[in-house]
Each structure stands twice: as C-alpha cells, then as structure tokens.
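HOLO CASE FILE
Compound: 5U1
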Amino acid sequence: MSIAERAKELRAEIEKHDLQYYVLDAPLVPDAEYDRLFRELQAIEAGHPELVGPDSPTQRVGAAPLPEFLPVAHRTPMLSLNNAFSPAEVEAFDRRVRDGLEAGDEVEYSAEPKFDGLAVSLVYEEGIFVRGATRGDGNTGEDVTPNLRTVGNLPLRLQGGSSPHVLEVRGEVLMLRGDFDRLNARQRESGEKEFVNPRNAAAGSLRQLDSRVTARRSLRFFAYGVGAFDGAGLPATDHTHSALLDRLIAWGLPVAAERRRVRGLAGLLAYYAEIGDKRAALPYDIDGVVYKVNDLAAQEQLGHVSRAPRFAIAHKFPAEEAVTELLTIDIQVGRTGALTPVARLAPVFVGGVTVTNATLHNEDEVRRKNIHIGDTVVVRRAGDVIPEVVRVVPEKRPILAPEFVMPKSCPVCGSHVVRGDDEAVARCSGGLVCPAQRRQALLHFASRRAMDIEGLGDKLVEQLVDGELVRTPADLYRLRLTAVSNLERMAEKSAGNLLAAIEKSKRTTLARFIYALGIRNVGETTAKDLARHFGSLDRLLAADEARLLQVNDVGPVVAQSLRQFFGEPHNLDVVEQLRAAGVVWGEGEAAPTATSAIVGKTFVLTGTLPSLTRDAAKALIEAGGGKVTGSVSKKTDFVVVGAEAGSKLEKAQELGVAVIDEEQLRELLNKKGALH
Ligand code: 5U1
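Model generated. Tokens follow.
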C-alpha cells in the first residue's frame, strides 16, 4: 500500500470513529487506539505536506493564530426567531399559521429544543467543509473556519455517496455542561478566571484568534436547518423539515435527538411541557423550544416578516437566572444541627416563580463566591432545584458591604457552634435541647416516607414545640384533644383529625421507623437495608460495628452514626417510649426468605409503566428482597422499561443489561427460587 493510500485509509478510519464517538455516542475503540491512528496520520502528513487536505482530521487540532476575523457574506441571510412567552402567544402563532395557509385542520410542526449557544453557518462544497461563520448581523458574519474545524462532532466531510455542490448548514455551537464543569475546574486549578455559564464559555472559545485554544475547549455543533443549497440529495419524497433533518443526519451532521413531529396547538404545548420536564437532565443548556411548520412548501407560502420567518417561533422557558439584591444572610438550623447560611433576597422572578431566599450552602461557599451583605447577586433556579446564588456582580458592591461571619453560638438555642477540622459544615452542639433541631426532627419523623402523619406540618410543629407540648417524637402519642384544639387555627375537628392521623401512624414498618428516627447518614434506602438485614429492632440495637458492616451499603461512616445514635441513652429512651406508646410494625418485613427469586438483585426503573407507579414498583421489588437504584451500571441486573424510556434504556443495551417490561417484572416477583 502506498503512503497516500495509507493516509486515506487512516482518514476514513478516524472519521468513522469521530462519528461513532461524537454523533452516535457509541465509540468503537478505546481512546488509546484512536490516539495511535491519529498519531500515525500526523506522522505521515508531516513527511508529506502535499497529502494534507482541509478535511483531514489532523486539521482539527488548531492552526496558527489569525491577526483578525475576516467578514463572510452568508449565501442566504441568517434569520432570527420571534419569541412566545405564554401558551396564549403560541395559540396566536398557530392561528396566524392556519389563517395564512387557509388550513382548516391541525397543522403539522417540527418541534425542537432551542439551544443556548451560538448560531453558526457552515458551508460544504462538494461534501468538504470549506467555511464556517458566526451569525453576525444576519447577512455578514465572522470567518471562524479554523475554530470550527476543531469541533469534534462537526464533520469535515459529508458521509454517504451523494454530496451537493453547495450546502449551507445552519446550527448552533455549544458546550456540554459536563465539558463546562471540567473546563472551569481546569481554570480554577490554573488560577484563571472561571466562565460564567456554558454559553459564555462556548462564545469565548469560538471567538479565539488562536484556534489551538479552541481545540482544547470541547465544543459541540448541532444542526437545525439549511441555508443555500445547490445540487441533489435533499428529500424529494415528503418535502418536510423533519425529512430534511433526517437527510442531514445521513450526511453525518449531528441533530438534536429530542426533536418531534407534533400536530396542532395541543401537540406544541405537550412538547413544551415534555422538554421542560427533561430540561435539567439534558447534557446541554436550552432556553426554550422552536416550532416550525413542517411542510416546506407551506413554509415558503408563509414567508417572512422583516428578519423573522412567519413559519417558526421560539417558545421560551422562564429565565433560570436573574439579578437581585442580597438583603441579609440568616442562619438556618437543620435536623442534625447543621447551620446553613441562607440569603434573604429582594423578591425576584426566576425559573417561573418569585424567589426571596437562596441557600448559600456553608461558610466556605460564601467565602469562595466572595459574597457580602448588600451585594447585587445573580440567582439561579433551574427546574425544581433549590434556588442558589451563583455569583456576585462586583461592580455593584456598595461601599462598606459587610462580610459574612458564621456565629459562634447557635442563633436558636445559644449552644456552642462546632466545626470539625475536615468538615465544611458548622453544627449546633445543642442536640434535641435546641428547638430548631427538635422542630426539624419532628417534621422528619412525621414526613410521608417516615411515619406518614398527615396534617403535621411546619406551622403546627412550631406551635407544638414553642408551646412545649412536644419535646420528642414520643410526646406526639401523648397529645390530648383539648390541648391540640386550643392551638391557634385549630378547631376541634381538625384537632381530632390530627390525633387520628397520629394514632394511624402507630402501625408502621420497621424500615419506616428506623428512617423516622432521623439518624445521621441513614436515609430511606439504608433504613430499608437495615430492616431487611436485621428483621427486628432489638437485633439492630444489639449489633456491633462488625455486624453493621455486613449490611448492604453500610460503611464505616454509617456504622459509626448508628453506634453513636443508639449509644445515647436519651435516644434509646425515646425509642422505648415510642414502643410503649404502641408504635408497632409487622414481622413480615424480616429478611425475605431465600425462596424469593429476586433477592439481592438490582433494578433500575425508567419510563412510565402501564399500571404501576414508580413508588409502587419500587415497593414491590424491595418487598421481594431486590433493590432499586437510580442509574444503570454493570452491577444492574434488570432495567424495567415503560413508555418513553430515555437514556437509561440505551445504557442498558450498551452494557448488555437485561431489559424487561412491567409484565416480566410481575412474573419475576411471583417466581420462587434463586435467579441466575
Ligand atoms: N432548533 C432551532 N433553533 N433555531 C434557531 N431551530 C432554529 N431555527 C432558527 C433559529 C434562529 O431559525 C430558522 C427557523 C430560520
């Protein structure tokens, strides 16, 4: 084989691996093998510069710095999108479309995520990537070709046989959240300034005159449309936008997997809700969704108004970040005595709700973010995640804005505040003497997954503790109707309901009881493991460290927490008082008999099952001696899939983990004897 032939073979091989890795998410070879092929090609090209073409994968590593970016005229203008912020605005859009098309019926749309990145236009001539530019003013952008060549999932040559003479691909360059976190960790380590968010990091990386810097930044490209086109190969059969995206995929261009064809207003709004739910779990930031009339002839018919098409609209999500003033920092005392600084904020609308508080996590976090009282801060609320202060706006700091100081004594009970040498968290040393800890401990005890006492919420617990009616959970079972009905906003009927709920909670399970005790580091799953392993509370109380360490997932930290908790006479006293008050659990939950077929098996649930809720499926599996975890790994035995299963199903297939449906799960649950 000649050198030129070997170079060609290596290029094809590397392109195939790039496609598998970046676009299909299914690498065929380990990184070391890829590196070996790459180095061999680099070595050949170094000795034979005449063999280096613009589409060689070696061109992805960056080129010599440019003095400036040159202007590039787009062959067709890059349009922008009008925005909708409410269902009513989407309804108006759909009505305009139907009126414009004189369509009596529902219109079909292509619905897609709206990437929070940078719009770019790529030009392919005879299948080779020759030029790429930023959007600029829509007519003229900046030539960032060498930088775009470094984007790993951007094909330097179109796949498949037929390439058009000219193809202008429109899409967005972005940075995945994982790559952003890694980049910022590197920036931190090297003492360089961190990037504010993935969009800024992507923008800063793409607009680098030195493309070798871009090459180190892990950018991605996603295509969403076509500008100029000359030649054959675009879909002739159904003339739709979705078929056009299919064609781009066939050419090896990455397109968002979350796109859908939907019908009418209801389809648009259902898509918006679906992507809204998935938003936090997506690997990239999006700021909304885009709806496009799917039929290309209908798009043409609708045309444009100034710079935006009439056939498309962006339906934006509520902004996840907003700027407000940090009024003061309060300290919250948690169930385990942890002191958490909480920012009190001037009310601000963010992530779809008005936010007035945001967690600051701990003292070190306040220092790291250099937060002072009175600062103007950026607040973030993404999905259902607790709002947090992301950063301060230093230019807006008032003179004499005081620093935060962690108090030396608990603001609730005055006990000493202690902080272990290697601990981030400062704690009140007051234990159940501290009313704040007592309140939190009672709320946890009564919570749905613990003793499930309906109606025992925040306000009521506060009154019970402040009025000294309740000091420990056992006191709940001694409450009298007259005392409860004398509380504020408590009629006799609601007092009766509360006492009935307390009475009902007496029949529980050992797992719930252990969890309800609020032992540090003992969450619901550990409590279940302990209940299953020991089968009785007395056996758990008698267990020494060695016995505790035999329990599934119990390590030295959990074992120590348990020993500490049960080593305290006042905790044992509360446990005894609860038993004396009549709290009981059945014997049925002792370690499942060895005949249960799923004992020790690990399950992952994904998608919506036809009849079982997630909690019900989990309870059935656990009752049979199995375990449910959140993510698929080689240790998973079964992945139970329902409708609209996502990446967990793909992961299971990739790892060769058994995939079953609800019916097969039920069969397993009914089966006796060990599975192999
Ligand atoms: N997903 C997607 N984003 N986005 C942005 N599609 C899309 N289409 C756009 C823009 C500006 O414009 C075309 C509809 C012209």
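CASE NOTES: Residues 79-81, 112, 114, 119, 224-225, 290, 292, 309, 312 surround 5U1 (CB under 6 Å). Confidence is low (pLDDT under 50) at residues 588-594.
CLOSED: yes
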